[in-house]
Each structure stands twice: as structure tokens, then as C-alpha cells.
Amino acid sequence: MSEIERVQSFVYYEAQLLDEKKFDEWLALLTDDVLYWMPLKRDQAEEDIYNSLLYEDKLLLQVRIERLKSPRVFSQLPPSHCQHVLQHPEVICQGDKEYQSRTPFIYLESHMDTQITLGGVVHHELVNVDGELRIRRKRIELLNRESALPSIQLFL
Amino acid sequence: MTASTTRFANPADVTALVRDDEVHKDVYIDADVFQLEMDHLWPSTWIFLGHDSQIPMPGDFMTADIAAEPLIMLRDKDGCVVVVKNRCAHKGAKLVSALSGKLSSNLRCPYHGWTFRLDGSLRSIPEPKGYAGSKYDLLASDRTTADKSIGLSRVKNVEIYRGFVFVKLSDAGLGFHEFFGDSLSSIDNMADRSPEGRLEVVGGTFRYMHNCNWKMFVENLNDTMHPMVAHHSSAGTVKKLWYADHDKTDVKPMVVEQFEPFVSNYKFFDDMGVKIFPNGHSYTGVNFSIHSAYSAIPGYHDSLVNAYGKEKAENILATNRHNTVYYPSLTIKGAIQTLRIARPIAHDKTLLESWTLRLVGASDEHLKRTLMYSRLINAPTSVVGHDDLHCYRAIQEGLASSDNEWVSLHRRYDESERIDISGEYKGNSEVSMRGQFRAWRERIVASMQAQAS
Ligand code: FES
Ligand SMILES: [Fe+2]
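Above: the input record for the complex with fe (ii) ion. Below: its predicted structure, written as C-alpha cells.
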């Protein structure tokens, strides 16, 4: 497997873990200084003092995952389910330890009788840690970020 | 205004929906009641439209719908804030569709190109000879000022209070200061927190679609009995994870500071206190609130002392109200500079907007804290927001039951309660909701009577 193929299969694997709700395994794929970011504005730079739909560090992601295990997670009783549909990731190698990938996606989230459809492009920044790929940044550029949105409850 | 449905032809039909300590379920789930509100309650009360900092320069505009009326708020060439209906005088096309933007020196309709000045008056029509002799005859030599009436309809009841722009669409109802009274002190406290006394709306808007009645959201803002239950899974989890490897004396990150108070106990929220005003307005956090224990931002205290003197500065900072409800449309958090605005769409559909404000003259740290709070608590991606909306939706569906037609507002009710005047109560009382429904009934009935006479 080439380096690029290894990154591509990693991106697919990450989405599969989320769709299968293996959240603890997913969390183990993140570096301690991870940033999971969904900007609110187009072309938003990180320095901009502007809000984001998500701007989460590892603690906040852990909170989301632990919350889902709570017997009082009312908005997830019954639970939502999600499905990522990914286009082939475009990968750029940066040196021998870091990778950037760009992956257009469609994301479905269903809750009882309702299903929402979201789409956009996800950008990963991956690093090699002891020979394993880890996510340092995941930036989700949501297509319909200007729309009035319903609850988005799982992980894109 | 259009006439309400015949089901509510008489004020008595409306008053029958509201008792002192309970309300009929139809106020939440009935489409005719919603129409009644849009015909009478929203037009006859002062509704928050926007903030003048959003349109700083001539030609700047923003749009919003209030009670199904499409509105444009713009800055005219003299620098005045003008509100007009977003409806072309020709065949009715909406003139601008964007939520905000900048106009050139006039408004041009996208359909047949009629143009209007920024004050709403008709400026030009292509091939004007086609209107010879009609009221749209721009070439007539005897055109009088009366012809202004053929431009865009202008909303005449517009009040700006410390930059907050409110409109009243009908002539029924109370004057601005009579309607809001001393509740305006919460807006004052938010603006006074700027060393320059000025606020700016910045940082983007969360537009969160709620499939529930607007009143569930508005009532919830002073509902102190729900956070420890509904938000246990989110705020309780933050607490659990943080204290797993930290103790009370460790410096808390802002995330923990913001989440932790949500799972305070009943006594905390009871001691916070609630203050009500006539006409449905209220705030929780008379004595302190979930925002009181935030750590100080360096230099800020001194900048307020410089601006206002020690005593006033300390009063400003000691006021940490939780949520203030400007019934029916606006809710604010002065202590953390956020707004949440209800834009009702149907009996079971409400657009909820969350805005953030900058304290002009204060450091960016304040704004970053404001943005974090709004993102963590109010965004469509917020784990706090998810559980609130889940509960609103659960009410919307649960009230379909025919078993009990009345919704309880009994907590701490006693017959001597005076909700017609201002007063302070224990925080866990449902007095603010009783006050809202008294105002709801009064304002609707007064508007119906004004229309009939
Ligand atoms: S509808 Fe506006 S110009 Fe015709
Ligand atoms: Fe809540």
C-alpha cells in the first residue's frame, strides 16, 4: 500500500467508526491537541474572531461521547444514526510524517421519522505517531451553513 | 391586519384560554391560536428587529420577518434608521432577499426595475409614460407629496434603545416606555459593560430551526427547574470529566466555568430569584446567576472604573442577570452579551436566532467568551440546545393527549400574587410564565377591541 492509499483508507476507516458508533475507538485516533472545527462563515480563518458551529478540543469531544452513554441523554432516546458517504480523498504529503486530505462528503443523520442530509468537504490534517496515523485537525466545511439548521447530534 | 379566524371572534374566547395558574393546551398546539397571536399579539407589542450596529453606513440593510411581514431595516442617506416593508409597490416582489448587505443609493426591484429611495419613496419606473394619468404617473407636473403613499410602506412605530431597534406594526398597544418600563435596565447593564457604553453585533448568527411553539422557548428562559434535569447529560458530564483528575482549587478552563453552573442544585436557582415586570417581561438572577463566578479578565475592571467611577463600575459588574425576557420576541443575557430571538413561523415551528455582541472598548477576551458560550449552549450543534429542543418537542407531541387540556403553571402560585406590577420572587417560582400569559391575554384582547372600534 502506498502512503497515499494508507491515508485514504484511514479516512474511510474513521468515517466507518463514526457510523458504527465506535466512539471510544474514534477518540483514540485523535491527538491530544486535536481540533474538530466546523466554521460558521465561508473562508473563515482560525484567527478570525467569529463563531463556529463546532470548535472543539479533546475535552469537549470526550464530553459528547460520554454524554451519549448517560441514561439521561434525552435527545438521544431513542438514538440517532448516521451515514457518511465519502468521495475519494485527495491527499497531499507534507514531509514524511504529515498529511493533508480533502474529502467531499454527504452525511445523513436520522432520528425516528426524520432524516437530515448535509454535505460539504472535510479536511483532515494527519500525523504519524509511533507509526500510526492520528488526526490533529478535522475541519468540516458545511455546504448549507447559512441555512436555519435543525439539531445536528452526531459527528460529521 | 387581517381579521382573526371566527373561532376567536370575541375576547371572551381568548380569555377562556388563560387561567391564573394554568393555560389551555391550545395556546401551544392550535394553528388558529397562532394566527390570533400573529394578528394581535405580535403587531401590537414592541418586537425586536435588529441592532443599529448591524447597519453602520448609509445603504446598509438587514431583513427579517415579523408576524409574517417581510421587513427591511436600513440606514438612509442622512444616517437615520428606516424600516420599510420588503414588498415592491408594483406587483409585490420582495426587493431584497439577503439577510443583510449594502444597497447603492436606492432599492431596485429585481422584477420590472422600479426603484425606491432609501426613505421608501418611489423614485423611477422604466418607460414611465405607460402610467400617464394613473397614481403612478411620475411625469405629471402636479405631483404632490401625497404621492409618497405609492412608495414602499414604512413602519412608523420604530424605537431605538441603546442601539436595539424595536418595531410595533400596528397602532394598537402601549407606547415603548410604558410597555417595557424598568425592564430596560437589563439592556442598560449589557451596554454599560462596555467602557464606551456601546455594543456591536458581531461574530455571526446561529439560525436554529425549532419544531415547536415559540412560547416553549420563551418560557424556558426563566425556567429554573429544568437545567439540573435536562442538562445533566451535558453539563453533568463536563463536571464529571473535569473533576476526575482536578480538584476544586485548580484553575478551571472557560468551558468548565460555563457548563458547571447548569447543574447547580435547586436551592441555587431558587436563591437566584426572579423579577417580573408588567406586560410579560422578567429576568432571573436578581441576586446572582450562573454567570456570577466567571473569572475576571485582566484590565477590565479598571477600564470600567475609569469610564464610570468606582461606585457605578462596581454596580455594573455586580449585576449578573441570567436571562431577561422582553416579551414576546427577545431574550438577552447581559452578563455574557448574547441575544436569542424568537421568530415564530407556525404554531409548531420557530426560527431561533442567537446573536453575539462585542463590548466596544473591551478586550477580545470578552468576545471570545461570548462566542464560546453561544456556541456551547445555543448552536444547532450544541448538546445543551439538543436537550432543550427535545423537551419542547416532547411537549408539542405530548399535548396531543386529550386527557388533560390544561398546562400547569402552579409552582409557588398564591392568590395574593400581584403579577400586574413589578416584583421579586424566589427563583423557582413559575411567576414569570403567569405574567407572560397575563400579558398575552391583555394585549390580544386590547388589540381585538381596538380593531373592533
Ligand atoms: S414587482 Fe417590482 S417592479 Fe414589478
Ligand atoms: Fe435549557
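Notes for the reader.
Residues 431-452 of chain B form the longest helix (22 residues).
Chain B touches chain A through 42 residues (CB under 8 Å).
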